[in-house]
């Protein structure tokens, strides 16, 4: 997928036309999560201008999240409307519902045998679910699995794309950090590069995970990108919770925003600044103590199921686009920090509403 993105970016060299990374990255992550789920990508990377409607429809639904969480009947009601009405009333909702229906159809094709697992090149989430002998028949219905597909794919592309966008902006706007990262990436033997042999991918990823500066770049980016800034409620149904001198009665919803933790000045002085070096100890090692103060994937038993996939995407995309195997060189175009600073909680993170995104000019690397 990253190679496919490279190919698309190369197509913009010499055109004088900027590329909007908010569209390019969401196309990348949407294609990855759909391929990972169904062995069949959405194809957004091949779409014209990376299918901007994919981004706008997803963020359009996110803007409704506060209303939908209080009025659960709204979304099911919208699904009952004729498609022609819905398209006129809420184009964003119509696009999302159409995508959701495509997941349902994909699941139905699997269940009816129209799509054979044995023809797929690699395992997928839903292949493994449907093959699991411990699954109850009620868990293997089209409606149930369709909802699971919607949940998995929806959670698997917006936040990761936003994180890549934040990382790219700061690296491109701060040459000294970019130079340091590229020097570190050069320490990985070329024999491990997937560009040399695609079978090297897992070894290459393992090597990336050991790089101190790459790790602090990603940690600081996740801190500033937040993951989901929305308050994710948790309820202890059977036990009272004790916090210091307070007793929280069982059944009480408890929540806080990731911003409350990530922007805490006691742990992150000058919290509004992107400073990867804050994660380095004096001996150059990663400061794991700080790690407990960021929650981009939440924590505990309800943490993000796709966390390891997201980490792999971040490692491989940043190394692939800015490392020695990259075939392109990007520079920012009419973009500043306000285009990545999170201003709005729309469940998903959002910068100022009139932001045009992180736009770059692309040239071939010399």
Please write out the topology.
Elements: H1 2-10, E1 19-20, H2 21-38, H3 52-63, H4 65-70, H5 74-80, H6 83-89, H7 91-111, H8 125-131, H9 142-155, H10 158-173, H11 175-185, H12 201-208, H13 212-225, E2 241-243, E3 246-248, H14 258-262, H15 288-291, H16 307-322, E4 328-332, E5 344-346, E6 348-350, E7 359-364
Antiparallel strand pairs: 1-7, 2-3, 4-7, 5-6
Helix pairs in contact: 2-10, 3-7, 6-7, 7-9, 10-11, 10-13, 10-16
Protein traits:
single chain, mainly alpha, 3-stranded antiparallel beta sheet, two-stranded antiparallel ribbon, globular
Number of strands: 7
Structural class: mainly alpha
Please work out how many helical segments DSSP would assign: 16
| Helical content band | 40-55%
Largest sheet, in brief, is:
3 strands, antiparallel
Biggest sheet, spatial arrangement of strands: 1-7-4
Poorly predicted parts: none
Radius of gyration over alpha carbons?
A: 21 Å
Mean pLDDT level: 86
Q: What separation lies between the terminal Cα atoms?
A: 23 Å
> What's the SSE pattern?
HEHHHHHHHHHHHHEEHHHEEEE
- Overall shape: globular
> What percent of residues are in strands?
5-15%
């Amino acid at each position: 997928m990253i190679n496919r993105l490279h190919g698309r970016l190369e197509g913009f060299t010499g055109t004088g036309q900027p590329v909007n990374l908010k569209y390019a990255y969401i196309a990348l992550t949407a294609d990855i999560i759909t391929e990972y789920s169904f062995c069949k990508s959405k194809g957004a990377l091949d779409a014209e201008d990376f299918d901007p409607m994919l981004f706008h429809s997803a963020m359009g639904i996110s803007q409704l999240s506060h209303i939908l969480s209080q009025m659960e009947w709204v979304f099911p009601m919208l699904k009952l409307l004729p498609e022609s009405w819905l398209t006129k009333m809420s184009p964003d909702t119509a696009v999302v519902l159409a995508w959701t229906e495509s997941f349902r159809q994909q699941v139905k094709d699997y269940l009816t045998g129209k799509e054979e697992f044995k023809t797929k090149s690699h395992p997928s989430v839903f292949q493994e679910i449907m093959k699991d002998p411990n699954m109850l028949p009620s868990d293997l219905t089209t409606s149930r699995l369709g909802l699971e597909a919607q949940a998995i794919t929806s959670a698997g592309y917006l936040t990761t794309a936003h994180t890549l966008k934040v990382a790219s902006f700061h690296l491109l706007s701060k040459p000294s950090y970019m130079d340091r990262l590229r020097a570190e990436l050069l320490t990985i033997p070329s024999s491990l590069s997937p560009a040399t042999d695609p079978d090297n991918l897992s070894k290459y990823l393992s090597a990336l995970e050991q790089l101190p500066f790459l790790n602090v770049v990603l940690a600081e980016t996740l801190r500033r990108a937040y993951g989901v800034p929305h308050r994710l409620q948790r309820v202890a149904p059977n036990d009272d919770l004790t916090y210091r001198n307070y007793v929280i009665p069982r059944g009480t919803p408890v929540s806080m925003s990731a911003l409350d933790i990530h922007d805490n000045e006691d742990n992150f002085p000058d919290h509004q600044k992107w400073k990867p070096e804050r994660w380095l100890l004096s001996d150059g090692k990663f400061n794991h103590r700080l790690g407990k103060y960021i929650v981009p994937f939440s924590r505990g038993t309800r943490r993000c199921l796709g966390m390891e996939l997201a980490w792999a995407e971040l490692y491989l995309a940043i190394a692939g686009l800015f490392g020695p195997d990259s075939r392109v060189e990007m520079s920012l175009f009419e973009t500043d920090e306000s285009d990545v600073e999170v201003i709005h909680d729309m469940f998903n993170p959002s910068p100022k509403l009139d932001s045009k995104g992180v736009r770059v000019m692309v040239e071939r690397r010399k």
